[in-house]
């Protein structure tokens, strides 16, 4: 039955349709995989009994001709999505014991389509991080290891638990959220596909907020086709979210035509600095060749304001976080640390409940929004953000998609960058610009470093053009032929 965990989501869907196995058998296989990979700490909360109960319901629905698009397919849910009756923590101590009485729109869509929830995956606290080391529940571990090096590696962040779970075949796919690269960067580190839709494509309702103008839910899977399948269900207009786009959801799976002849692919000069990792640079060159061989035309482009993306992000995102996290005060839900007064209770609860990285970003954001500094920092950052957006608008007048590396390096050992915040923040240098511009992006596993670690290539398209994104990504995936499996470091 363990062989069932080797299936892609689309193959598992087809197998269930043909009756090759049951949803209960498929779910049991993944529950067993979760048991055997508990050292990865990929899940904060596991719900095997609930999963098997829903799998039984799925088998009943199938036998009565009532199968949904994802009927009986077991998934992991990032613990940033509120799930009715299931503990939701955002990987923070301050949400201890919070069990929502409602379901996020994205997970409600998956549930309505018949998906089976295996549990809630680990993440950086409140999605603030690039390595999954800031989680109150401990770091998630990457299932991959360097050749000849037994040290545990980070899975990336903030959606590190989802990436690790998918890479280790503990679930067929998982949800993630991407604020500055938190789906795409861990996907690159773990050798899976990670896709960030256009901002507004998926509802943010019921997703614990980090930065409201940047947060966007997306799928994390082992293949591009699986990503297209999940996004088709996750996406859609939601009147409960004012930033949700009222527009039809295309059939993303149908976009995988395998034909990109005549498409123009942009190569931004700013993404190839002099100190670019040699393995990453070599893989980018291979990716360029693969798309050329498939009939695409490669075009050099410029995104001149790219160098301002990280500083802009680290003003805008913390500013919005400082406002969003003000609701955690010990009064209404989660942790409460009693004090001598109401103000004292607020202070004590937040001091104990928030971790170091969350406190750091709240302080940065509060400073940027404070009297006398709002114009100098936050307002200026918003103006630069618009320039970054305009760079992409101009580029897409001449190209259909953009190809870049996803991350500047492969995964690094846990603890290696913990004391170097700049090095940690630089992990998102290639992903942040697209987040600021609100455009869709996808990371496709395309090769291995010299030390045997996975590397991803990133594709970007204009807003609302996920169909072209999947079309090119499918061709890139086929050309790369990535079939690597996590190694234990002994090779």
Question: Can you describe this structure in just a few lines?
Answer:
By secondary structure, this protein is α/β, with parallel strands linked by helices.
Explain how this protein is built.
It is a single chain. By secondary structure, the chain is α/β, with parallel strands linked by helices. It has a domain of 297 residues: Amidase signature (AS) domain (Amidase signature (AS) enzymes). An 11-stranded mixed β-sheet has the order 1-3-2-4-6-5-10-11-9-7-8, with helices on both faces. The longest helix is centred in the C-terminal third of the chain and has 22 residues. The mean pLDDT is 96.
What is the topological layout?
Elements: H1 9-18, H2 23-36, E1 43-46, H3 48-63, E2 74-78, H4 105-112, E3 116-121, H5 160-167, E4 173-178, H6 184-190, E5 193-196, E6 216-221, H7 224-234, E7 264-268, H8 278-293, E8 297-301, H9 309-324, H10 342-353, H11 356-369, H12 374-395, E9 401-405, H13 421-425, H14 432-437, E10 441-448, E11 454-460, H15 466-480
Parallel strand pairs: 2-3, 2-4, 7-8, 7-9
Antiparallel strand pairs: 1-3, 4-6, 5-6, 5-10, 9-11, 10-11
Helix pairs in contact: 2-3, 5-6, 9-11, 9-12
Q: Which strand order does the major sheet show?
A: 1-3-2-4-6-5-10-11-9-7-8
Output mean pLDDT. 96
What is the oligomeric state here? single chain
Beginning-to-end CA distance, first to last residue? 27 Å
| CATH domain class name of one domain | Alpha Beta
How would a textbook summarize the main sheet?
11 strands, mixed
Percentage beta strand: 5-15%
CATH architecture label name of one domain: Alpha-Beta Complex
**Bulk shape:** globular
Number of strands: 11
- For the record, what is the CATH homologous superfamily label of one domain? Amidase signature (AS) domain
Low-confidence stretches: none
Helix run count: 15
Q: Which class best fits the helix and strand makeup?
A: alpha/beta
Helix content: 25-40%
Radius of gyration: 21 Å
CATH topology of one domain: Amidase signature (AS) enzymes
Topology as H/E string?
Answer: HHEHEHEHEHEEHEHEHHHHEHHEEH
């Amino acid at each position: 039955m363990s062989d069932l965990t080797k299936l892609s989501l689309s193959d598992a869907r087809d197998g269930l349709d043909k009756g090759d196995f049951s949803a209960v058998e498929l779910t049991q296989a993944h529950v067993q995989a979760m048991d055997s990979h508990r050292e990865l700490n990929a899940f904060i909360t596991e719900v095997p009994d609930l999963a098997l109960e829903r799998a039984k319901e799925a088998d009943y629905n199938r036998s009565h001709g009532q199968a949904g698009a994802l009927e009986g397919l077991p998934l992991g849910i990032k613990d940033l999505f509120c799930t009715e009756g299931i503990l939701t923590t955002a990987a923070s101590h301050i949400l201890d014991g919070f069990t929502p009485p409602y379901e996020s729109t994205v997970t409600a869509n998956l549930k309505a389509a018949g998906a089976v929830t295996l549990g809630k995956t680990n993440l950086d606290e409140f999605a603030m991080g690039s390595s999954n080391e800031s989680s109150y529940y401990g770091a998630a571990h990457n299932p991959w290891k360097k050749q000849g090096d037994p040290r545990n590696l980070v899975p990336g962040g903030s959606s590190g638990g989802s990436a690790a779970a998918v890479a280790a075949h503990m679930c067929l796919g998982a949800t993630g959220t991407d604020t500055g690269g938190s789906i795409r960067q861990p996907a690159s580190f773990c050798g899976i596909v990670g896709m960030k839709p256009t901002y507004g494509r998926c509802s943010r309702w019921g997703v614990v907020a980090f930065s409201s103008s940047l947060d966007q839910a997306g799928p994390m899977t082992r293949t591009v086709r699986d990503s297209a399948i999940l996004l088709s269900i996750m996406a859609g207009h939601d009147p409960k979210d004012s930033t949700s786009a009222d527009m039809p959801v295309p059939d993303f799976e149908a976009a995988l035509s395998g034909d990109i002849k005549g498409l123009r692919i942009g190569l931004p000069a700013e993404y190839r600095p002099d100190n670019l990792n040699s393995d990453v640079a070599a893989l980018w060159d291979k990716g360029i060749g693969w798309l050329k061989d498939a009939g695409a035309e490669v075009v050099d482009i410029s995104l001149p304001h790219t160098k301002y993306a990280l500083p802009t992000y680290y003003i805008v995102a913390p500013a919005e976080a400082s406002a969003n996290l003000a609701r955690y005060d010990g009064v209404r839900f989660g942790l409460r640390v009693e004090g001598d007064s109401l103000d004292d209770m607020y202070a004590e609860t937040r001091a104990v409940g928030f971790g170091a990285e969350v406190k750091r970003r709240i302080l940065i954001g509060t400073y940027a929004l404070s009297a006398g500094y709002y114009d100098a920092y936050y307002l200026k950052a918003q103006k630069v953000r618009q320039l970054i957006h305009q760079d992409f608008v101009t580029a897409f007048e001449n190209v259909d998609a953009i190809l870049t590396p996803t991350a500047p390096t492969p995964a690094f050992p846990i603890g290696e960058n913990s004391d170097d915040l700049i090095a940690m923040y630089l992990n998102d240098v290639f992903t942040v610009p697209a987040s600021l511009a609100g455009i869709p992006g996808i990371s496709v596993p395309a090769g291995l470093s010299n030390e045997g670690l996975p590397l991803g290539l990133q594709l970007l398209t204009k807003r609302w053009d996920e169909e072209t994104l999947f079309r090119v990504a499918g061709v890139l995936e086929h050309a790369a032929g990535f079939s690597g499996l996590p190694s234990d470091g002994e090779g």
